[in-house]
Amino acid sequence: MTAFPERIETERLVATRCDAEGELDAFAPLFADEAIARTMWPAHLGGPRTREQTYAWLARYDAHWEAHGFGPWTVRERDGEQIVGHVGLSYTVVAGRAEVEAGFILAPDRWGRGYAAEVTTSALAHAHAIRGLESVVAFAMPDLNPRAVATIERCGFAYEGETTVVELPHRLYRIAVS
């Protein structure tokens, strides 16, 4: 079995293991963005993230990598150093069951370029490195984030049903790991 890579490169993007300390300044305004908050942290979940909340979120990514040997990557365009978001795999719980989730958050000015699908597809190509993993899930709120639904479907996930995540209805998708 091969190790899950800490760095991947796609045609247009470079994705590296997250670094909470070194990347906080770049992620703080991204996580405070109203457009992202509408799809990730609606008002009942506190809305846009503060700098401290962003650090805690990123620190969880670091801890996930340390504990499991995989996790979300920080995404940059190949032709620059500016962070444009994160994409990757991480453990989550869906309907009381431990799952590996494919998730992504990108800067709103990068939406519609296919970046999330590009890196998610690459992440799925490495998912076989996660011992015992048979499938990966993804979920999104179709009313609040139809672009995420389209991205998930573009990556080959199959619709599995409806579920509740953070007290909100989501569509649940699954893809087998080969």
From TrEMBL:
Its EC number is 2.3.1.267. Pfam families: Acetyltransf_3. Transmembrane segments: none annotated. One of its GO terms (molecular function) is protein-N-terminal-alanine acetyltransferase activity. It is an enzyme of class 2 (transferase). It comes from the Bacteria. PROSITE patterns: GNAT. Keywords: Acyltransferase, Transferase. Residues 14-178 form the N-acetyltransferase domain. This is Ribosomal-protein-alanine N-acetyltransferase. It comes from Conexibacter arvalis.
